[in-house]
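hey m, so remember when u said the tokens were messed up on ur end? i reran from scratch. heres the input so u can diff it against urs
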Amino acid sequence: MDFVTADHAGIARVVELLRAGEVIGFPTDTVYGLAALAAHERAVRRVFELKGRSLSRPLILMVADPDQLSGWAEVDQRARGYMRRWWPGPLTLVLPASEGVEPPLTSAGHPRTIAARIPDHPVALALLRAVGEPLATTSANRSGEPPALMALETAWVDGLAAVLDGGRAPGEVPSTLLDISGDEPRVLRCGPVPAEALLPGQ
């Protein structure tokens, strides 16, 4: 595994690795994450393998712009309102999946959903803009263990192609997870964005 400086050259190198079907590590506004091109099925499955994550637990799509969700998720006016207010930021939205998007990126339940967000971190945003398409991501820690806040804390991931070293990640908990795929919004995971700021009447 290589630890890569998060400058223009380092980001360009990591983009090449992603396009070659590799899995990389990178910093976000919450914790360090693992990422692969969402459109590269083999690479996405490799993320699950490296982390030891069940295929029944979908990954999160990270994008540089909400328009990149076209073909992946259905975005209505309510969703766009949340996006305008909270993106970039530590809020993951659970949206209805577009027709034809299959597991492991979609939820195993019904209706099928996609989780997505735009991180508020300069290195993550630079990477997402450079690659120009959604990344399938998950936190860079073993399930049940503390999150990785430094690049070196991802060293346990055997088979990771490279890690963008952006210094210490500013957060200590994963993003808030808000399901807006149904009639009423539901907080599925508490995080940096408080529930009372997201739910009407709270």
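this time it looks ok to me. The chain has a mean pLDDT of 93. if urs says something different then somethings off w ur setup not the seq
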